[in-house]
From TrEMBL:
GO terms for cellular component: cytoplasm. InterPro entries: 6-PGluconate_DH-like_C_sf (IPR008927), NAD(P)-bd_dom_sf (IPR036291), P5C_Rdtase_cat_N (IPR028939), P5CR-like_CS (IPR053790), P5CR_dimer (IPR029036), Pyrroline-COOH_reductase (IPR000304). This is Pyrroline-5-carboxylate reductase. It comes from Pseudoduganella albidiflava. PROSITE patterns: P5CR (PS00521).
Length: 275
């Protein structure tokens, strides 16, 4: 499979790392980015071909991944219009941008219909990503399978029926790794304030996340039961969870996820209005 990336930043690098040499040889991946440093790193690390701007190699791809910031998308995809119109096969356009609606993207691409919108996350870098995907009406079954194959190479996939749901996916899993890192940072800070070294705190916090996440993933029991099993009545965990409840931590997390989803929706509305 030939895959082209428009944008070779953080998320594209995570996807390329999972795809190169697994789904397709690195030489079958073409990355377009005006930033030479981004291209050099991807070429050196994975043997991908590169270009500073959209070129003929992009039109040879079966899947074109759009991986630029939402605010740069309209300008970035303009050079694709003649390429897509003249392509002998119909490449799948796979957008990973937060917020950008398929209808707006289709309009910017001159009415192109084969678009899958997707929200991956950075654990794709180690093959442990999770992505939500939604296909536009013009997407064939084969193109849907191609999108699924690309994302499955770097983790799991969850298909959605309604494009509006992708803002919720953005809030939960697209932005989610940052919440986990934030929690780890907080646990490390507490460890240091309680007299451990920063290194000890980090090791304990990271291993606790890895272990608890694996336990939740492998267990057949509800997460709430796993939580209760750690929590002796009147014990230490009870003291911690009571403190969290009193501080409104759960409500704050729910609000934070909703804020991310709302920002995704707002970005889409802004981009749609701007043209
Ligand atoms: N970083 C993350 O965790 C996730 C990001 N996303 C989405 O992925 C997209 C990219 O995000 P990041 O990789 O984090 O951003 P980034 O800033 O690391 O990468 C964007 C890249 O696009 C390049 N670029 C700018 N204009 C261009 C153009 N006209 N043609 C080609 N390349 C161009 C930039 O030089 C940069 O290397 C965004 O739309 C974001 O919403 C989605 C899921 C997770
Ligand atoms: O923060 C962002 O806008 C991107 C989308 C999801 C994760 N990172």
């Amino acid at each position: 499979m030939k895959i082209a990336f428009i944008g070779g930043g953080n998320m594209a690098a995570a996807l390329v790392a999972g795809l190169a040499g697994k789904v397709t040889p690195g030489a079958n991946i073409h990355v377009v980015d005006p930033n030479p440093a981004a291209l050099e790193a991807l070429h050196a690390g994975h043997g991908v071909t590169t270009a500073p701007s959209i070129d003929a190699a992009v039109s040879a791809a079966e899947v074109i991944v759009l991986a630029v910031k939402p605010q740069s998308m309209r300008e970035a995809v303009a050079p694709l219009v003649p390429l897509l119109a003249g392509a002998p096969h119909a490449p799948l356009v796979l957008s990973i941008a937060a917020g950008i609606r398929s209808a707006d993207l289709s309009r910017w691409l001159g009415g192109y219909g084969a678009i899958v919108r997707c929200m991956p996350n950075t654990p794709a870098l180690i093959g442990m990503g999770i992505a939500g995907l939604v296909a536009s009406a013009g997407v064939t079954q084969a193109q849907r399978l191609a999108a699924d194959q690309v994302l499955k190479a770097v983790g799991g996939t969850v298909w959605l029926d309604d494009e509006a749901q992708i803002d919720a996916v953005t809030g939960v899993s697209g932005s989610g790794p940052a919440y986990v890192f934030y929690f780890i940072e907080a646990m490390q800070q507490a460890a240091v304030e309680l007299g451990l070294t920063a290194g000890q705190g980090l090791e304990l916090a990271k291993a606790t996340f890895t272990g608890a996440a694996q336990l939740a993933a492998q267990s057949q029991e509800p997460v709430s039961v796993l939580r209760e099993r750690v929590t002796s009545k009147g014990g230490t965990t009870y003291a911690a969870l009571t403190s969290m409840e009193e501080s409104g931590v759960k409500a704050a997390i729910v609000n934070a996820v909703k804020a991310a989803a709302a920002r995704g929706k707002e970005l889409g509305e802004q981009m749609g209005r701007d043209g």
